[in-house]
Amino acid sequence: MAACCAVALALATVSAPAAEKRRVKKKAAPRVIVEKLTCMLGTEDRHARIAVEVKDGRVESFAYYSKWKPRTCSVHVERGDAYSNWDDAGRFTVVMTEKGAFLIENRPRDVHFLFRNVDRMFYCGMEGQITGTLTVVRGEQECALEGVMDEDSDKDAPSGTTGAAPS
After folding, report:
1. Strands 143-146 and 92-97
2. How many domains does the chain have?
3. C-alpha–C-alpha distance, residues 158 and 152, integer Å
4. What is the pLDDT of residues 112-160, one digit of tens each?
5. Terminal-to-terminal C-alpha distance of the chain
6. DSSP letter assigned to residue 12
7. Domain containing 99 — which CATH number?
8. What pLDDT digit, counting tens, does each position of 78-102 carry?
9. Is residue 23 part of a domain?
10. Exposed, middle or buried by CB within 10 Å (0-12, 13-18, 19+), for 32?
11. How much is the pTM?
């Protein structure tokens, strides 16, 4: 019996430091600030919209969608995916894909996108390129567009869509 008590006492002293280690609180992971911004501009039959995810002040992904009844256009780009390269310089981000480039400026009031020669056929099934700007203003539901929804945006067409619904 004394031997059993000695073994139990020895096990208790060995497991005590292990129990103390388990009680040590793990440091909390740093809090990540996530913003999800969305906006839309236009009518049911012809509109543009975008959803943007910003983590700790850095754009992580965006999804642009437009509708020119009966056609739709869909662009979804995510940091770390196999189809895009992201390069950050302060509040500016350049996203390069095989089908065009997106320049993003994350400003305090809004997130401003510049679409540069984005292949409309690949993303939308229509001839031409998407070239222009789209701005998502924090706290507002409407986007500001210039050139993105122009039918001939790959040519020197007048912009005409800033702050108004596409015609």
Report:
1. unpaired
2. 1
3. 9
4. 999 999 999 999 888 889 999 999 999 999 999 998 887 654 443 333 3
5. 93
6. H
7. 2.40.128
8. 999 999 999 999 999 999 999 999 9
9. no
10. exposed
11. 0.73
